[in-house]
Prior knowledge:
By secondary structure, the chain is mainly α. The protein has one domain (7-416): Growth Hormone, Chain: A. The protein contains 17 helices and no strands.
Amino acid sequence: MKFRLTKEEKSWAFYDWANSAYSIIITTAVFPLFYKAAATNAGVSATDSTAYLGYTISIFTFILAMLAPVLGTIADYRGMKKKFFTGFFILGTGATAALAFIPADNWLMLLVVYTFAALGSTGANVFYDSFLTDVSTSERMNRVSAFGYGIGYIGSTIPFIISIAIILLSQSGIIPLSVTNASRAAFLITAAWWLLFSVPMFRHVHQIHFIEPDPKPVAQAFKRLGNTFREIRKYRGLFLFLLAYFFYIDGVGTIISMSTAYGSDLGIDANSLLIILFMTQVIAAPFAILYGRLADRFGTKQILYVGIAVYTFVCIYAYSMDSVTDFWVLAMLVGTSQGGIQALSRSYFGRLVPKENSNEFFGFYNIFGKFASIMGPLLVGVTAQMTGNTNAGVFSLVVLFIIGGIILYFVPDPSRYEPVPEN
Length: 423
């Protein structure tokens, strides 16, 4: 039978279409270039500005890692998940728009506002990810999750093309905008796109699995959280997967969030970087969907190993990267796997968790991911400053993929795993 998504599954996946504009324009492309230019104009060296960006990413991921499990536990109560999602959504879109009004020479303020935008985006994603268990079944999660990432990459290219066009036209003098103001326009386009296309998520996605409210929800949430900490080791599949995920997703997230800074440090001009990043999105869309289909045919774990192998090669190859051609090769390799490895990780975990506690467990999923994201950028930043070579920092990430792959071997197949504590 032809695989057809339900209205709820489509509406959920469409949020990836909305939010992915932030991922490419703010996290990966335009904002890093805008920030790097501001830092350079202020006399900050290329290596130091890359390190400061890494430290900033570490700070906001640490904050979210502290909040995610507690808020996730509270969000499992009836009606709370959408409220938390909405709060972080407003913070993210508001701060993204605010980036357009920061003076171009104030690189420190840019990092501060970027921290709030990133908190909003990643915080909303904590609750968005957990909604997967509300809109789909275990048997459908691989394709639904992969479809979300796939249309996310497709959707992100539209505001990205518009933003690139405005920037290039301003550079050539065809439109009466400075390059600085053209970049600011890209920030406003991102916020508007994110707002507009999140409407289906708000209208059609609702919390189906929940715990009935408690008279003292905060106190009870901490009690439940403490119980989960004590009991999580009994969920063998969950524990092992989280441990594997902690390591390999660190490398994935670090490469994605700091790729533009790497290219800039290599001397690749801004226009070339934007074109390369655009092509990465084009490549990533069909491959994310392909990963979902291959996982249904060959097994999710086996296809996760394909993604880990690709990223391991990327880290090794990056050590000797010194040209635009090298960066092109690595970008295309990353494009084949970045959406797939994230989509299958999300669906694999979603099939392991007890649905009525999905937000609590997705809180742990995100805390492991976010704590890992502290280590990666910090490692790259410190290594880059110590060696004066950003490539060495990228190469150091290879060990994370190897460790993650080894632990993943021991994670059970979700189709044969019941998320019930062992006796």
